[in-house]
Amino acid sequence: MKMEELVNYCKQYGFVFPGSEIYGGFANTWDFGPVGVELKNNVKKCWWKRFVQEDSKTYGVDAAILMNPKIWAASGHIDSFSDPKMDCKKCKQRFRADNLIEEYSKGVVSAEGMTNEEMMKYINDNHIVCPNCHGFNWSDIRQFKLMFETSRGTVEGEKDTVYLRPETCQGEYVNFLNVQRSMRAKVPFAIAQIGKSFRNEITPGNFLFRTIEFEQMELQKFCKDAQAMDVFNDYKKRALQFVEDLGLSSDKLRFHDHDKLAHYAKCACDIQYQFPIGWEELNGIHHRGTWDLSRHSEYSGEKLEYLDPDTNEKYLPTIIEYSIGADRLTLALLCEGYQKEKLADGSEREVMHLLPALAPYKVAVLPLIKKNHSAKAMEVFNLLSKNFSTTYDETANIGKRYRREDAIGTPFCVTIDDNTLTSNMVTIRDRDTMEQISLRIEDVVPYIEEKIKF
Ligand code: ATP
């Protein structure tokens, strides 16, 4: 499915709506609708379960979005978190100069190490035109700050600039000792967080792929330097296993090692997914050395060393970071799950083949005939909805209702008919096979619970 088709599909079925739509929209912001919010919450729940709940050495936090601005000086964001932008003077569109070069050269030339002057020269020498209007009338290249600024202050005129965090991980670095001491944690251990980040991206787009506000699910593992490469390789494996377990197919996933590394990094590897726009980063795994803790020690004046209780050795742990965007992963799952299927009777159905654990609604309760069966169906809804997210639908004919549930990925439909009134039996229809079985009402909860485990 093309990205525009997916956007329409998501709007039609309540997954995702364009942000601020009735005001003409607000570019590259999206609002998750009733169906989408369930899906994204399930994505986050599965991640948390796998990487925090099931790992005795990982501790969760939920840090503030607005942090002391010195943190962004220490992290290097105030000085260097910017991209080289240029404007097309003809159509007024803004582009990243490095992307223009890389796209023009089909990835053969990397602009990563180039100065602005070198990039301008390359663009002029090769007469790279505006991808939007094909004009050749560029502004100079200027650095474009990627952090959103706001201000804080109770006295007018004495406002301080503060920033919306562009990444969540700083909340873990600054709480390293708090977590270590309060949880009596021994290195190696990890701190994990799920939360919003904000980036004033120059070229956002492709639906949920790159937005200016997004959620990150990430963890920072603090370890001894000698263990760091093993930890790095372990997270590569675990990160891949996680997305495969969620249903992304292995032939659409690959590792991509970074050629260019940050000066403090020993290695970095992304997992890429084959989106409809091509192979793109889904998550990153980075070896960050002791850079973050040493910078925060320097800027805060607090020594962030770990004291090993067994050896009495004091040292700054090395950090391995694993980070994945909740929205980007949700997009990948939607791309993967969508299928148009031809049925035996020649008709077509659209199905979202989501893993049951991820499905927005685990079950739909459908009275066969509204006036006869809706009271009993409501009873069943009340029973099931205490256990998992359940939807109720009494509109239209049963075939149309099944189609809608297929389209939003509901793995089971429970139909209430005369048999339910007389003998407490319901029919359960499976989304993928479309097969139906009969069950006693009291057996429905354990039946579904077994199928939705992750
Ligand atoms: P990219 O190269 O795509 O800009 P990045 O290397 O800057 O990503 P990180 O800072 O490592 O990304 O962020 C970790 C993860 O957060 C990414 O792998 C991606 O899943 C997600 N992410 C990053 N930027 C965005 C964005 N603008 N919109 C949605 N998700 C994002």
In terms of structural class, how would the helical and strand content be classed? alpha+beta
The amount of helix comes to 25-40%
* Name of the level-1 CATH class of the largest domain: Alpha Beta
Give the termini separation. Answer: 27 Å
Strand order of the largest sheet: 3-9-10-16-13-12-11
Look at the structure and name the CATH superfamily of the largest domain.
Bira Bifunctional Protein, Domain 2
Which small-molecule ligands are present, each listed once?
Answer: adenosine-5'-triphosphate
Q: What's the pLDDT, averaged over the residues? A: 95
| Shape call | globular
**What is CATH's topology name of the largest domain?**
BirA Bifunctional Protein, domain 2
Q: What is the radius of gyration computed over CA atoms, rounded to a whole number of angstroms?
A: 26 Å
Low-confidence stretches: none
Number of helices: 15
* Biggest beta-sheet profile: 7 strands, mixed
| Count of all domains | 3
Measured by DSSP, the beta-strand proportion falls in 25-35%
Per DSSP E runs of 2 or more residues, the count of β-strands stands at: 23
CATH architecture title of the largest domain: 2-Layer Sandwich
